[in-house]
Amino acid sequence: MNKLKKLLTGIDDDATMALNDLWDSIPHNPSIAWYPSAGLDFRDLVELSNYEPDLFIHTDYKPDWRLINQSFDRFETGVIEDRFDVAFRKEILQVHELMLTKKVNYFVDEQHVDFINHALETPKVFLLKVKVTHTNNYVIRPVIYFVFENINFLDEVLLKYKINIKYLIKVREGCGFGGNRKSITVAYAVAANLGIEYLICDSEANPDLELINEIVEKHKLINYRFNLKKHGSISGWSDLHVTVYSIDYYMELDWIIDEIRENNGNF
Known about the structure:
Blueprint: H1 3-7, E1 8-10, H2 13-25, E2 32-36, H3 44-47, E3 55-59, E4 78-80, E5 89-100, E6 124-134, E7 137-147, H4 150-159, E8 167-170, H5 191-194, E9 198-201, H6 209-219, E10 225-237, E11 240-250, H7 253-262
Parallel strand pairs: 2-3, 2-8, 3-7, 8-9
Antiparallel strand pairs: 1-5, 4-5, 5-6, 6-7, 9-11, 10-11
């Protein structure tokens, strides 16, 4: 069953109809690609076309950073100007606002972001139809955009409601001077719990071990170790070198022995 289906509804009849059309067009258990700190970048729709995720989810606490000292309100249809990837023409064709049907503790932590005054006071979710054109070829795909801070979304949506993510896209997340204080690389530590099979990432990594431990303890997660297998690379994504990996998980023997001892052999 599509767990997202229980979490979202349209804010009006048109949005509800568009959302129902989306659910009808994808499998009950869709393969999902998640792009944290996506901003107005939709290049992933092209770069993952060979992998064919059923659904794209984007998050950012302020999607349009072209707005100086203004909170984001909603998406507008039209062509997006992106100085990072001028070879990719990105256009929003349709916008429908959605709303959450279940309780989510929406919270933008000032320790997680630089510009907390730019964040929305309440969450917003949008269903977008996006067209991306590159070298005379184009794709048109739906994107569900959660206007959330990344860690809050990981904690209160993905892990809380056990929504699996097959593809994690960690590109240009904006740590340092980009508005982001806590790197979404904390998700690497709980990748098995999210069901992640592919990691599409740049070389920047700033995992916060204290935050990882908090998330693991809160959700009672199991830490799996994993090996990465390189599948390919993507050059020049926002002037970054991006690598595509598949993930092989395993549990260390010591961990299994400890679990057996703690449970007296009963599982």
